[in-house]
Amino acid sequence: MQLLLRLHSVDFSSIMTEEGGRTDSHRESMPRDSTHRLSLIGRNRRQSSMNSIPRNFDRRFIRYENTFRMEPDDDRRIDIAKVKRIGNMVVDSAIKGYQYDPNNAKMFTSRLSEQIRNQMKQLPANRFKFITHVCLGQKKNQDLRVASRCLWDLKCDRHITITKETKDYYVTITIFCVYSE
Amino acid sequence: MDDINETSFVVDEVSNVIKESIEATIGSQSYQQAKINTWTSNIVEAILNSLTKLNKPFKYIVSCVIMQKNGAGLHTASSCFWDNSTDGSCTVRWENKTMYCIVSVFGLSI
């Protein structure tokens, strides 16, 4: 029994150095940010014997424990008015002195979408995923149409659209908030 | 390996679906202001229908931008806060002589 235990601990440390995973069967819930990927990798490995460590399993397939929660908690719901307020605030401050410049419009658009995403992350909504879609264009008497359709859970998922215009350009922002169980 | 395809976003497959839908709807057409409404709705609905037929455990967001070719500039960007290992997005840019079409599909795993 002792020998067995020792072997197990050796394996554990080697796995820790390789992938930073955990081999014991007690699993806690962990934050699901992309920066925590390394520590989540070991979670789907539950081995009962020494020889069953799959060295070549695909690291992308991660199974989570059941939380038995189907809807957002009352205090964790997305307040759509708040999202709209934040979105408006960020966009207004971003386009305040901005003149359309084809050279750095690309940087400006991606920076704006990142700013909005960072603000969304501050919200107390715990189990929500956010997608921010920014569309910036020059006005030259052309026509433009932006349409989107979503397949999701009507009860929990929301989206808002903000459009701002100046003399030379327009910007359309759509923020999708999707609940993930 | 089959398991992985079932629960993660496969970009190639989705990109093919998008291209087929765009070609089928506006492939040979010229820009017409009256029809643009129908075109965007049709493209988006066709893509969403084909994606559901794939039967994967995903929530989808499909977004389509159609712009007339007039010499104006257009920039789109999207920023996503999600689970990198299971979620993904695919953007396809298509054009013909009179218009540009940009379609983005975001797939969020359930």
TrEMBL record, chain A:
GO terms for cellular component: cytoplasm; cytoplasmic dynein complex. InterPro entries: Tctex-1-like, Tctex-1-like_sf. This is Dynein light chain. GO terms for biological process: microtubule-based movement. One of its GO terms (molecular function) is dynein intermediate chain binding. Signal peptide: none annotated. Gene3D superfamilies: Tctex-1. It comes from Didymodactylos carnosus. Belongs to the dynein light chain Tctex-type family.
TrEMBL record, chain B:
One of its GO terms (cellular component) is microtubule. InterPro entries: Tctex-1-like, Tctex-1-like_sf. Keywords: Cytoplasm, Cytoskeleton, Dynein, Microtubule, Motor protein. Gene3D superfamilies: Tctex-1. The keyword Methyltransferase does not apply. It is found in: Cytoplasm, Cytoskeleton. It comes from the Eukaryota. Its main location: cytoplasm. This is Dynein light chain Tctex-type 1. It comes from Didymodactylos carnosus. The lineage of its organism: Eukaryota, Metazoa, Spiralia, Gnathifera, Rotifera.
